[in-house]
Amino acid sequence: MIEWLMYIVLGAALGTVGGLFGIGGGLIAIPALGVLFGLDQQLAQGTALVMVVPNVMLALWRYHQRNRIEARHALPLAAAGFVFAWLGSLWAVGVDARAMRIGFVAFLVALAAWNVVRMFMKTSPPSSELRHPWPWLGVLGSFSGVMGGLFGVGGAVVATPVLTSVFGTTQVVAQGLSLALALPSTAVTLATYGFHQHVEWTMGIPLAVGGLLSISWGVKLAHAMPEKMLRSLFCGFLVVCALMLGFKI
């Protein structure tokens, strides 16, 4: 019972972060499970997904309530993300755990570097309309889906910075669309990891309960923050995650 309460509290903290950055909490849950509980990389990713899937579902609904998500933009992202996340997850379950962890750290470092660079790039004012036609969303969904399936993060962390920098959306619009991409991709990735016995359900379920209790607060906080502050926090968050796992390699 004490363990379940501990997992619920941890899930609540991760859910707040997931709602704040529109990523479902998995990106921080994976290093936390690896560092604090000693899970290997695939098991940490699969267990985190038990929390991420319902968190993403709730966060997507909350984002849509506050800032309507356009179906014509969300559908190509979601469809491509679903197919390529499934392919990425099939690849992930066959990779050596240490190699996977090294790859995950490299992935986080690359994301952090890209987010730092784009903070200093000159860009046009953000808009709710996209700079590029919808077929390019399918390309973004495919790449994000592969990364999400491989590393168990749903692809939102890849899609969000690309949507703001390349497609010219606001941070909040990008996070909402990224959640639309993440929902089907995380679901199929969890199914694949579960089928291959890479999920610790007794840990993942209470994490999910805690996440559901707090993610709405994170979404509310995201909408109240200035755009630049939200991007800066997201960048720092990625660096912290990379450092946490880097000490375990």
From TrEMBL:
Listed InterPro entries: TM_pro_TauE-like (IPR002781), TSUP/Inactive_protease-like (IPR051598)
Organism of this sequence: Pseudomonas putida
Topology term for the membrane: Multi-pass membrane protein
Keyword check for Ribosomal protein: no
Family per record: Belongs to the 4-toluene sulfonate uptake permease (TSUP) (TC 2.A.102) family.
Localization in the cell: Cell membrane; Membrane
Main location: membrane
Transmembrane segments: 7-37, 43-61, 73-93, 99-117, 137-160, 172-193, 205-223, 229-247
The keyword Lyase appears for this protein: no
Name of this chain's protein: Probable membrane transporter protein
GO cellular component: plasma membrane
Keywords: Cell membrane, Membrane, Transmembrane, Transmembrane helix
